[in-house]
Amino acid sequence: MDGYTDGYLAPQAPSGESATRLTPMQLKILKGVQSGRLNKQIAFDLGIAEATVKAHMTALMRKLNVRNRTQVALAAQSMDRMAMERLAG
Fold first, then answer.
1. For this UniProt entry, which segments traverse the membrane (predicted)?
2. What is the pLDDT along the chain (89 residues), one digit of tens a residue?
């Protein structure tokens, strides 16, 4: 059962290390996803093509070791929580 839940690979909580490997554009897109925005809305906000957002989403999913948009948003929340804990010391 290592890492598996009901036949699906369980997402790993992102480490601070994975957050540091994200590019500035990936972080902007991550924030858009976390806010519940669609790819089209994120593209408009950032002044880039929707296809570019999709490419960044694919890279984000790989880097965060997740399989879908919901898991990307959950990973973003986890990263925010870890950052707040670090600041609280």
1. none
2. 344 333 333 344 444 444 558 999 999 999 999 999 999 999 999 999 999 999 999 999 999 999 999 999 999 898 888 888 888 86
Q: Quote the CA–CA distance of 25 and 5 in Å, as a whole number.
A: 32
Q: What are the C-alpha distances in Å from 41 to residues 22, 63, 88? A: 21, 23, 33
- pTM beyond 0.85: the answer is no
Distance set, CA 57 to CA 32, 64, 78, 85 (Å): 11, 10, 17, 26
Q: Helix crossing, 50-64 with 24-34: angle to 10°?
A: 90
